[in-house]
Amino acid sequence: MAGLPRVVDLLAARAEEHDRDATFPYQGIEAVHEAGLLTLTVSPRYGGPGGTLADTVRVLAQLGRGDASVAVVTAFTLLQHAAQARRALWPAAGYRRLITESRRGPALVNTLRTEPGDGPGEPPRTLARRDGDGWLLTGRKTYCTGAEALAWMAVTARTDEPEPRVGTFLVRGESEGLEIDPTWDQLGLRASAGHDVVLDRVPVPADLALGLRPVEPAGTDVAEGAEGADRTEEAEEAELARAWHDLALAAVALGVARAAEAWLVRFLNQRTPANLTEPLGTLPRYRCALGEIEAQLIGAEELVAGLAPRVDRGEPDAVARTGPAHLLATRAATAAVQQAVALTGNPGLSRRHPLERYLRDVLSSRVHLASEEAVLEAAGRAALERGTRR
């Protein structure tokens, strides 16, 4: 953690350039790696520091202040290591290879699930065909954060067997038959390289095909494919993975909002219009507006920081609350940055200043949030169920 402020400064110094050109922030990722933050959540049994969700939230909030794209890419790698720490799904040899690579340099990992035009509950169209003892993967994945720099990709696919199975196939980023289609051209998070990944008969050894299970009917949760104790374990892991995702990505959005607030504070302390003799920050109206932003961010930060250690302790109620917490934190971060832009007028929207980038990044952070309707419907259903038990 000691090197974190320096890393944040380095990220902030290059963020505008990478945003403007939509280029991947290799130097920023290297800085995160050199500070030891890219392997924060590696379990002690693999030689790592065993960072908790509370640690992860703190780090990602700070990285979000520097460059939201670097923070998001980092987040998905930390989530992969955290999942392996909870439940060792990667084969021992494969994960040892990843850890070895992580000591030599940045080794980014992400799960590739989304496909063009897919719907909720549909099995993946990416196909795994038998090839001797291994598999050949063919398909296209979209919105693959960090695509061009991933060392490993955990690709969801279905098999071409008479009774198809679905699972996760671990693919090296340099594999033959794998191509990056540079489709990412978004409003914000422009340096996060969420390109499409095209797979054309990409070879995968048999031991890197994980969790193969029969294809379930549309609308069935993945965890429901298991039975008995396995089903319970799968469901609990899915809930924990979602909780980590919710709070980690919420922290990034809040980091962006804090960067916007810091810029606003400097602006209000320095800006003295021609019709005034004192800076805008001396006016009660602007102080109250800044106070509103501060109050929103304090509330959201306390929510996220308070839930994270409860999730670490395994409190079921905390795990169930991370979806609404992610929604509320994202809303608060977005509202704070929008208010900062409104307070500054034309300077806030100028490309010469970072505030407009913060606005674009925080708006684009919603791509990592489940649909509001789904989050609120689930929260409402849970409230109704609690009511019937009273």
UniProtKB/TrEMBL annotation:
- In its keyword annotation, does this UniProt entry include Oxidoreductase? yes
- Per UniProt, residues of the Acyl-CoA oxidase/dehydrogenase middle domain are 125-202
Residue span, Acyl-CoA dehydrogenase/oxidase N-terminal domain: 11-75
**One annotated GO molecular function:** flavin adenine dinucleotide binding
UniProt keyword annotations, A-Z: Flavoprotein, Oxidoreductase
Organism, as annotated: Streptomyces rubellomurinus (strain ATCC 31215)
Q: Which Pfam families match?
A: Acyl-CoA_dh_2 (PF08028), Acyl-CoA_dh_M (PF02770), Acyl-CoA_dh_N (PF02771)
Q: Where are the transmembrane segments?
A: none
Occurrences of domain Acyl-CoA dehydrogenase C-terminal (ranges): 248-370
Q: Which named protein is this?
A: Acyl-CoA dehydrogenase
Is Ribosomal protein included in the keywords of this UniProt record?
A: no
